[in-house]
UniProtKB/TrEMBL annotation:
It holds the Pfam family DWNN. The gene is RBBP6. Residues 4-76 form the DWNN domain. GO terms for biological process: mRNA processing; protein ubiquitination; ubiquitin-dependent protein catabolic process. PROSITE patterns: DWNN. It comes from Chinchilla lanigera (Long-tailed chinchilla). This is RB binding protein 6, ubiquitin ligase.
């Protein structure tokens, strides 16, 4: 039996998918991971990246060698869409001399902008 070790980017430990042969296709690997993790194909797709080389596997017919380690991310069906950087900032009135800024966005770097806007508003 051959295996591929996988882990979701948010988890610490690897799990294992077993198969026969020297390689497993990306499509078959996704099916096995979705089955093991009880994910529905209609809800999301999986983005698979080689843990050592950081190469993203995009072709469903790509062959992943046995004993490989991969990082898995759930992505919306159709892939990740680029955003137009829509920011939602709500501010509350100062309470006891403080100002509070609440930022919501899917872009991780946006929090830096929130921090900057918060500091500008306080000064």
């Amino acid at each position: 039996m051959s295996c591929v070790h996988y882990k979701f980017s948010s988890k610490r430990n690897y799990d294992t998918v077993t198969f026969d042969g020297l390689h497993i296709s990306l499509c078959d690997l996704k099916k096995q991971i979705m089955g093991r993790e009880k994910l529905k194909a209609a809800d999301s797709d999986l983005q698979i990246t080689n843990a050592q080389t950081k190469e993203e596997y995009t072709d469903d017919n790509a062959l992943i060698p046995k004993n490989s380690s991969v990082i898995v991310r759930r992505v919306p069906i159709g892939g990740v869409k680029s955003t137009s950087k829509t920011y939602v900032i709500s501010r509350t009135e100062p309470v006891m001399g403080t100002t509070k800024a609440v930022c919501k966005n899917t872009i991780s770097h946006f929090f830096l902008h929130c921090f900057y806007l918060y500091n500008v508003a306080v000064k």
